[in-house]
Amino acid sequence: MTRKLDGSKLVIATHNAGKLREISALLAPFGVDCVSAGELGLPEPEETGTTFVENALLKAHAAAKAAGLPALADDSGLSVTALGGRPGVYTADWAERQWFEGEPGRDWYMAMGKVEGLLSEQGPDVDRSCWFTSVLAIAWPEGDEAIYEGRVDGTFSWPPRGTMGFGYDPVFVPQGQNVSFAQLTVAEKQAMSHRADAFEKLVADQFGDAAHG
Ligand SMILES: O=c1nc[nH]c2c1ncn2[C@H]1C[C@H](O)[C@@H](COP(=O)(O)OP(=O)(O)OP(=O)(O)O)O1
Ligand SMILES: [Mg+2]
């Protein structure tokens, strides 16, 4: 039995604004009182793990310890079949850190282009199948932890399309769709995303019978 959230404030342990928006929307129906790592001024921990699970736990435990509150972290990434699963855990690292209009950010266009470059080297008939993984970890200041994993399959599509979402959304076309994640509203993306898949497992485990939304 995993430990359950008991109504205390929950830290959303991410420094990614797109993730924060999605996780806040997913949690909204459950009346969880949330505060973000940014609002608390928590530092961004170094992601030294080699798996999504390790990094999600590392981020959740760091925030829980620093805040003295339970914390929810997401570690996620895009894995491309023809690239042996890369960039995978290193998805964020493939986008160089840059400053945009005075704000720290990452150069996603460059990162997507790097994937496209490696794929097109393999010729026009290259397998473009790929998937997103999201691992959600909850950690408590006392050291307890819970892990939920989600996945969505799709196709790496070039050129990028759409302006919604974040990160690699403009190049990811989910299976059974002909538009990219960046052409979907938050609600439409939540109906099929890796993060929503992991969240469904979190809800079943954490909120049990009270689950809805
Ligand atoms: O739904 C998604 N749509 C598009 N791109 C996505 C998605 N989900 C993950 N991704 C990409 C971008 C993200 O930056 C990276 C994960 O890296 P990851 O270290 O987990 O996140 P991050 O550094 O951006 O924020 P933080 O660690 O503070 O939660 O994979
Ligand atoms: Mg990160």
Explain the layout of strands and helices.
Elements: E1 10-12, H1 17-27, E2 34-36, H2 52-67, E3 71-80, E4 97-100, E5 103-106, H3 108-120, E6 129-139, E7 145-156, E8 172-174, H4 186-190, H5 194-206
Parallel strand pairs: 1-2, 1-3
Antiparallel strand pairs: 3-6, 4-5, 6-7, 7-8
This protein binds 2'-deoxyinosine 5'-triphosphate and magnesium ion.
* Lateral arrangement of strands in the main beta sheet: 2-1-3-6-7-8
Q: What is the rounded Rg?
A: 17 Å
Shape type: globular
Report the strand count: 8
Secondary-structure content class = alpha/beta
CATH topology: Maf protein
Q: Report mean pLDDT, rounded to a whole number.
A: 95
First-last Cα distance: 23 Å
Strand content is 15-25%
* Percent helix range: 25-40%
Number of domains: 1
**Please, what is the oligomeric state?**
single chain
Proper CATH architecture: Alpha-Beta Complex
Task: Give the names of the bound compounds.
Answer: 2'-deoxyinosine 5'-triphosphate, magnesium ion
CATH class membership: Alpha Beta
Residue runs with pLDDT of under 50 for 5 or more positions: none
Biggest sheet architecture: 6 strands, mixed
The run of helices and strands is EHEHEEEHEEEHH
Number of contiguous helices: 5
GO molecular function: dITP diphosphatase activity; ITP diphosphatase activity; metal ion binding; nucleotide binding; ribonucleoside triphosphate phosphatase activity; XTP diphosphatase activity
Pfam families: Ham1p_like (PF01725)
Cofactor: Mg(2+)
Subunit structure: Homodimer.
